[in-house]
Structures are given as C-alpha cells and as structure tokens.
Amino acid sequence: MVRVRDTAWTPAARTFPDPDLPARAEQFAQLLRGRRAVVLTGAGISTPSGIPDYRGPDSPGRTPMTYQQFVGDPAFRRHYWARNHLGWRHMESARPNAAHLRLAEWERRGLVTGMITQNVDLLHLKAGSRRLIDLHGTYAVVACLDCGARQSRWALHEELERLNPGFAERVASRGAIEVAPDADAVLADTSQFRMVGCPACAGVLKPDIVYFGENVPAARVQAANELVDSSDLLVVVGSSLTVRSGYRFVRRAVTTGTPVVVVNRGRTRAHDEATLTIDGDCVDVLDLAEAALEGRTAPAG
Questions:
Q1: In this structure, which CATH number among 1.20.58, 2.40.10, 3.30.9, 3.30.1600 belongs to the domain 60-93+137-209?
Q2: Which of 8-12, 25-29, 51-55, 192-196 has the weakest average pLDDT?
Q3: In contact, 282 and 263? CB cutoff 8 Å
Q4: How close are the terminal C-alpha atoms of the chain, in Å?
Q5: Rounded to an integer, what distance in angstroms lies between the CA atom of residue 123 and that of residue 99?
Q6: What's the pTM?
Q7: In this predicted structure, what is the pLDDT of residue 170?
Q8: What is the pLDDT of residue 64?
Q9: Annotated catalytic residue: which of 85, 100, 124, 136?
Q10: In the prediction, which pLDDT does 182 show?
Q11: 79 assigned to active site
C-alpha cells in the first residue's frame, strides 16, 4: 500500500459543527454498545495537543516531502534533517489530549478493541492505548536504508547536537519556528547543517515514518486488516481520509457490511459511505458520546 498525495495540500473548507451534536453523539453511543469497535485516527485528533495538520481550515498550504525526494537528493536530505532536528522535539514534548485519553479508557473498558493511527506522534501510546498499529510509523525511531539498523531518535539527536553546536539557538534567534505535521519544522537556510550516517555502515538514515510515495509495510497493513475484520464497528476520528492508506480500511469495512462512524471537522472522503457522520471537535464529540453511554447529558463545547 503506497501513501499517496495530491501535488500540494490545501486547507479544507471551514464548516460549522452539526447543530444536533448531542443527538448524533447518542446515535454514536448506541452503535458502540455491545460492539467490538476499532478506531482509525488522523491528524485532527492531535491538533488540540499542539501538533499541526495538513488539511485543517487554519493550516497553511503545504507540499509534503516525498520518499523519492528524500532518497534521491543528498541536499534535500540535509535540509530535511535540519528541520527535523528542531521539529521532532516539539512532537516529543506534546502530550495526549482528552480525546486520546478517552479512547484509551474505552479500550480498557472493552468498548474499543484496537486502534489504527495514521499519526506518527505516539500520543495514543502516551495516553495508554495498548492494541495499537502505527500505520505510518513513528518519529521516535530512525532506520538505515542500507543495512536496516535501527536506533532511537534521542541517540541521533545527541550526535547531531555534537556536530551542530548552537544550531537550534541560532535558528530560534531569527524568530518563531513554524512546526510542520511530520515531526519537522519550516526553515529557509539549512546549508550549514551537518548530517551523520548510520553508525553501523555509514549508510543513509531515515525516520521510521512512511513518507508520501512510500509503501506501508505489508505486515503492518495485514495486521490492520485483521483488526478491521475482527470488529463489528469502525470509528474514524479526526481524519479527512484523503490519503488512501487510511481510507482503504473504510472501504474494507463497508464492503463487509460493518457500520462506519466518522467524527471529523468538515466533510471526508467517506461521508457518502458512513453509517453516521458527526461534524464536530473530536474532544467534544467523544465527551458527548461518553455522557450518552453513562445515561447523562453534557453540554456541547
């Protein structure tokens, strides 16, 4: 499965939350009761934690890096690693928000049997989710494209700090740093940044993240398929499903008659196929659904 994209991402059209959010949340709760739900999450669930997304109405237009660019141009790799050297620390410091914590709680209670996330931020793991598939990898591991050796991002960070003393401070002195969604930052001049090779073979290092144009590992796809097949409800939270690597799980559920609930700000690729759609903030909707599960009312927003 290849992670594909348009030439450039443009922000989604701004929408208003559904005026009947409590009623839709009640329908969501009814679908959850007595079922084995699998949850598929996207960038929208992590924006309350301070991690930007590609498609949100307030996001700038972006052209994400592709795998072909990364492997094909040493200068491009240097530019990427300079940005990542700053951006990954922002992602590392991010903390789960109430939506991540709610889903982890639902897993402990047996309402959710597993999670598939398109995010690389580890926030579900930090929140306590345990049956978790990181579809696009995570920011915390670095792999060698030549020998396959793996190391932690912290270990690489220490080496890059040694090779580039004062780099972060010099960049910060020029003004605010814009953080991008895939654990990097937006920088103009990175020509002086020094990169290191694999400590085992001096090969090319790459974050263990599936870039656009790169295949999601087959074993990971198979595990996600098995999780979807074992469920009788698929819940999408915070994803427009623009990328096919996530949308294909909705198609898999729909073709087997499994109900699909979509919780997102704005219209998604699956709106015409979903059993229930809810346009609203992820935290608000999950709180309302929890209130409905407990038989109480909770104010929206």
A1: 3.30.1600
A2: 8-12
A3: yes
A4: 37
A5: 10
A6: 0.89
A7: 78
A8: 75
A9: 136
A10: 55
A11: no
